[in-house]
Amino acid sequence: MASQLLFFSLALIGAATPASSLHVPFQRRAENQTIRWLDCHTRIPPALQGLNITADTPLPSSLQCGEIDVPMDYSKPFDPVANNITVGFAMNRPANPQGVIYFHPGGPGIPAAPQAWENALNLSSTFTELMDDFDILGNNQHARSGILYPFELYLGRVFQRHTHPLYVSFIYRIFLDAHRGISPTSEEEYNAYQVAMRGFLASCNNTTPPGLMQFVSTAEFIQDMDTVRAALGYEIIHFDGVSYGTFVAAAYVARFPERVGRFVIDAVIPHGMAFQEMISDQVAATNRLLLRSDSFCMTDPTCPFYGQGKGSVVKAWETLLAQAIETPLAAPSCGPGTLCNAPVTATDLRFAVAASFRSDPDFPLFNFALNQSLHGNASLFGYQPVFDIRETVVSPLLCSDFPIEDSAKTFEGFNNFSINAQPNDTASIIYTQTWQLLLMCTAWPFEVPAQTPVTSSKEILWMTSDFDLNLPTELTTFAWQQTPNSTLLVRAGDGHTSIDLTGPAGSAAALSRNFLRTGSMPSPQDNTQVVTVIPPGGTRPPVPDPYDVPTGAVAGDVSVIENIITSSEVQNATGTTDTTGDHKNGGGKVHGTPEYTVLLGLFLAAALVVY
User: Fold this and answer.
1) Rounded CA gap, 486 and 262, in Å?
2) Which residues 6+ apart lie within 8 Å of 476 measured at CB?
3) DSSP class of residue 589?
4) Could you name the domain of life of the organism this protein comes from (predicted)?
5) DSSP-assigned beta bridge partners for residue 238
6) What is the mean pLDDT of residues 150-157?
């Protein structure tokens, strides 16, 4: 998942910010500064420690690291002993910034500060054209842990060792071992899940300072954001956020409308949308991606079903699922001593489909795994407990934001979500990410405020892709419809976010960066093959047929087993034109070895970026 940048501007006390103030000159406060500026050598992100940066390694002067004390509980006065935690951040600071862009990477729980390092060290080109004109600042909810970067665990210190995705508490392991660790299918299993999940959440509550787990929600984080904004001396902030960062962005718009500058909100998790709608839309998105995988196969000579015509991948899926319902599938590379369970049940298979298509769907890998499973080896679809999202920081961060109605806290009420989504589920996939996260949060022990849709007259740039699974395009459309002066940008293609894309799929990202730089909204356009821009007051057309939108590089498709290149690159290399659009060049055959199972596991781990 791409990092996210947040651009902050300080609000002057008592002053509302009209639209024209988007162009106010940069200001800093010379007094009452509460930021402690740190030596960035002592705050190297774990993700970049492989660069072997030492205390003697020169770092660009534009890279700055800092921390600031804030209340743990904003309902009470700040107290340096009794009500205090430390928020850390990293940022790029040019000589004469015009404003600040705050970047949020989603997750929830993915560190954003590494993006500032990547910018400074020229490891990323995503925000190169903005760095001379803006402060670019990154942090996220995990900054509430009291340290800028976790020293031992990538996800942070808030919940200590319990946040590690490889750590499974004893009580929860009982459920995993007894019930396959995926889905309760009866009242008894549902109750066992509740006991196990409550045990895990209770283990998370051993925090420093005590009680922190109750104060890691977006409501606290946006106040942290505004505290940093004020300390930096900005009147408004600009914001570039994806995935769960969009939920944060909308919350900030609602809470601090006078501080809102240029907001780019990409792949949206909306406020106030009914869970049933979200689950039904995600079921529909999963089914669409199965058709996208079929469409990809039709132009991919390395696909095992190539040449068998439209619908060959769908037919293969239906055949495999019927076999798994009849008898669990053999998975010789899975079992004791491996990362995956054997045999592979129909439930395992259904969850594997959703995992395969999350974030950046790998159609060649899915089609290969499907064919391999039909030939007696379903190892690539085996459930892998170590990559389960539930025993990670995702649980507390999500569950502190989403209230669950009492009617959903029973097996019957919970199961109805899947039953009601059946009209969208022609492939009988059933399970979705939102469905699983809702199940997690039925065990959350603390009260969560009710949610309502965020309405605003601000000019916001909302972004989505037609075939996003994590946060289907219908969710972004719902949020956009609540903000009548805003623009909706729809990227034709696959994948979860758009702002970091370059090359053939980079048109949407370029438009968003231009808006951040200039404040000029993209002009209306209707190109269902590349980008559609719908102005304020416009109407979002239906999601296009999955077969009508090109696949491949132009759609943002990637693969760990094939090189996906454009038709122009094929022409340059061979002197011939590939009339099928994007050319898929096999990157090497794979044979279902244990090492390849690990490869899929790593791919699924990347897909665990949920929102």
Assistant:
1) 11
2) 267, 268, 270, 462, 463, 464, 488
3) -
4) Eukaryota
5) 7, 101
6) 26
Calculate the alpha carbon distances from 229 to 28, 63, 88, 156, 220 in Å. Answer: 10, 18, 13, 23, 14
- Tell me the pTM: 0.85
pLDDT of 20-43, one tens digit each? 222 222 322 323 458 999 999 988
Q: What is the pLDDT of residues 257-274, one digit of tens each?
A: 999 999 999 999 999 999
Q: Give pLDDT, residue 565.
A: 66
How high is the pLDDT of residue 581? 41
- From 299, 286, 317, 141, select the one nearest 213 (Cα to Cα): 141
Question: Could you tell me the CA-to-CA distances from 94 to 6, 66, 97, 260, 500 in Å, in that order?
Answer: 15, 16, 6, 22, 21
CA distance 603 to 219: 32
List the beta bridge partners of residue 475: none
- Among candidates 178, 588, 196, 182, which has minimal Cα distance to 382? 182
Helix (H, G, I), strand (E, B) or coil at 406: helix
Give 535's contacts (C-beta < 8 A, 6+ positions apart). Answer: 487, 521, 524
> At residue 191, does pLDDT exceed 80?
yes
Eight-class DSSP state of 246: H
Residue 239 has pLDDT above 70, yes or no: yes
Give the separation between CA 162 and CA 169, rounded to whole angstroms: 8
Which residues on neighbouring strands pair with residue 63, listed in sequence order?
92
The answer to whether the CB of 500 falls within 8 A of the CB of 303 is no
Size (the chain), residues: 611
- Angle in degrees, CA 361, 366, 370, rounded to 5: 160
Preceding omega of 209 cis (within 30 degrees of 0): yes
In degrees, rounded to 5, the angle at the alpha carbon of residue 363 between the alpha carbons of residues 108 and 387 is 40
Predicted confidence (pLDDT) at residue 588 exceeds the cutoff of 90: no
Taking residue 467's Cβ as centre, other Cβ atoms within 10 Å add up to: 28
> In one letter, which amino acid is 91?
M
